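chain below, 177 aa
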Amino acid sequence: ERLRLGVGTGWNYVEYNALGIDFASRGPRLTEQIELLRKYWSESLFSFDGQYDSIDRGNINVRPNRQIPIWVGGFSEPAFRRAGAHGDGFIYAGDTEGVLAGKARVEHYLAEAGRDPQDFGHELIMLRARDLDTAVATAETWEAAGGTHASVCTMGMGLDSTEAHLDYISAYKAKTT
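prediction:
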């Protein structure tokens, strides 16, 4: 998998105001956009008449040779529901307890939609793992809980160069392989 698209609604109403879009519509709009993107990627010519967008004989050239996986991110029940019904994976961030509770909610919605959980990815962005040993332990806990992907976060760790960030990631990899 060389490319996947992560999508989320965001939290800042100012961004939506700047676009002239109703902030309260962001969830349904995103769900509609997932459907629309998949049409662009799979159909040579299509029309689309959604609640928010309409396309008359739309297409893109060159289309990808496969569906690009769409992974939903967020912290809310609507995001968990959207992922279970429409996503190919979910991107979590936060403390382990909250993330595991979110994973359980996504799995509930996958089952509710009759979808195979084996075809669904779960990525943890390890924002709370602020040192190497904690990152390794967090990744091990995540994998044991059924997590499929993990991202090491080096922001805000006081690393003072690109090389220091790369060294940290290399040290993490050495401890986990």
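The CA atoms of residues 89 and 121 lie 4 Å apart. Helices lie at 13-19, 26-42, 77-86, 96-112, 132-144, 162-176.
thats it, cya
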